[in-house]
Amino acid sequence: MSYRINPKSKRGWIELITGCMFAGKTEEFIRRLKRYQYAKQTVIVFKPEIDTRYSIEDVVSHSGIKIPAYSIKNSKEILEILNKNKNVDVIGVDEIQFLDLNIVDILNQVANKGIIVITNGLDKDFRNNPFQNVDRLLYEAEYVDKLSSICHSCGGNANRTQRIVNGVPAKKDEPLVAISGNDKYEARCRHCYIVPE
Ligand SMILES: [Zn+2]
Q: Which sites bind substrate (predicted)?
């Protein structure tokens, strides 16, 4: 992993952890944030309210490690919460593709003020198209790590997310964001990924 910070550089930058589902993005996100907590740095974590997969107050990885987070509906709430909490060293923003389009500008403002921003998000949706916010952060962030997964069909290297509804690949016109009981997701390689029709 190409994660190198020059210790002489001024503080305040953006780190993006991206890739498909089941690549370990959330675990890597939590790991990076916890290092700052161990060093007694002030860390505040945010997550979009839409994501209630496991719990409301925590960001939880598939393997169960977690970190407490503010659930936010709107990216401006990050600035409101930071205004009430001075001396913040690091913020984390989970699942950035689910926040509104102002989030990238807000993260730039936060980083410009000297705060370290660590964020994660899917680079592509289930149609294999770029996901909002992550697309911009790929060039705005100082540090980008793209993690891959293992194909759930063949065991190869996967960088795509297949959405399965009632046992078959989701159609192209299904809503982009649906976290319901009938959906499941699989990591797929380019050969096993089926382009939604
Ligand atoms: Zn495969």
A: 185
Q: Do the beta carbons of residue 46 and residue 74 sit within 8 Å? A: no
Q: What are the pLDDT digits (tens) for 67-96?
A: 999 999 999 999 999 999 989 999 999 999
Binding-site sequence positions for ATP: 19-26, 94-97
Q: For 13-148, which CATH superfamily applies?
A: P-loop containing nucleotide triphosphate hydrolases (3.40.50.300)
Please give the share of the chain, as a percent, with pLDDT higher than 90.
74
